[in-house]
Amino acid sequence: MVILMDVVYRHKCAACFQQFKRKEHLVVHMKISHHSVHQPKCGVCHKYCKSFESLREHISGPLAKAHCSSVFAQKGCHVCLNVFESPVSLGEHKGLCLLTIPTPLGTTNIPYTEYEALEDESYVGKCPEAVAIDCQMVGGGSDGSLDLLARVCLVDEDEKMIFHTYVKPQISVTNYRYELTGLTEEHLRDAMPLREVREKISRILFNGESIGKARLDGGKAKLLVGHNLDSKLDCLLMSYPEQLLRDTAIYPPLMKTNFASHSLKYLTKTYLGYDIRLGTYDTFQDCVSVMRLYKRMCAQQHQEGKIGASFSHDTKQNHTFADQTSQDLENMSPDELFQISEPNYKCWCLDSRPRDLLDIGAYELNGILKNHNVC
Ligand SMILES: [Zn+2]
Ligand SMILES: [Zn+2]
Ligand SMILES: [Zn+2]
Ligand SMILES: [Zn+2]
């Protein structure tokens, strides 16, 4: 009977530890799970999870693994979910991990800011720079429910505001949504026309790069960071190459376990440790917060080349599931299967590596790059 149990449960996924009665079921699991070394990992048992939320459940939820949760309770950080050597090193870490809320920009004076960035001619294979965007809307239409762009803010990676303006609404405003926006008619009276706003933002983002090159491999164009970027680009009536977008609403590690989006307020509270949007929404606070979330994800240190596929040259060339016959796959060990497993999203930690070291073509093959028209 004991032997039978051993036989029955011997096919264990090397990444998430799920067990299967038949090897072919493990093979199917590996094909559809897209496990990789870029997934959030338990610092105690080294299980890989599909999102930080599933890792949080594993490590501190009501059904948490007993050993992992007791170690985490003593030496784990509730914000980044990393586990430290000792409670002392955890204490030191928390001072850096828990951030304080950025000073609000407010609406009392009416600032227009534009930072004239110099184009970087020396760009060759450097890491791409990121710019975060936030937009504020007021209401149009008979019931005030139509979103009209009223304010835009851009910050750079150092949290410096590089562009801010109020935007002249294209149709009349029927609800300024004052309690949320703090905006009145006065703010928008002499505001910048949408077309001019769009041109200025495009100039900052493309950074002197041609549209063709930006769409191909980015070139010196900037990464655009934001929460719900599609809706922000829609309200600006502009588009930007898909592979240069970094959207915290649809980045798998930051999504709910059912892959629905979290709000920016939730993500900021959970992953940065402070509350935004307690009264009016402050566009600068939102913008800085989304940049901080992006940078925190970029700073993840994921090992590559040992286990789990990566997008780097050496692991990419030879093996994928498609290259193997089903018999070959069934003969592979769980570790070997993990080695050829490919992520179905591009981990943001790869943004902190020079672009020319990455196999950008791999994303195209995987259908992750979608060509979007650039206006
Ligand atoms: Zn698994
Ligand atoms: Zn990664
Ligand atoms: Zn664990
Ligand atoms: Zn932490």
UniProtKB/TrEMBL annotation:
It is found in: Nucleus. PROSITE patterns: ZINC_FINGER_C2H2_1 (PS00028), ZINC_FINGER_C2H2_2 (PS50157). It comes from Centaurea solstitialis. GO terms for cellular component: nucleus. Residues 11-40 form the C2H2-type domain. GO terms for biological process: rRNA processing. GO terms for molecular function: 3'-5' exonuclease activity; nucleic acid binding; zinc ion binding. It comes from the Eukaryota. InterPro entries: REX4_DEDDh_dom, REXO1/3/4-like, Ribonucl_H, RNaseH-like_sf, RNaseH_sf, Znf_C2H2_type. Keywords: Exonuclease, Hydrolase, Metal-binding, Nuclease, Nucleus, Zinc, Zinc-finger. Belongs to the REXO4 family. This is RNA exonuclease 4.
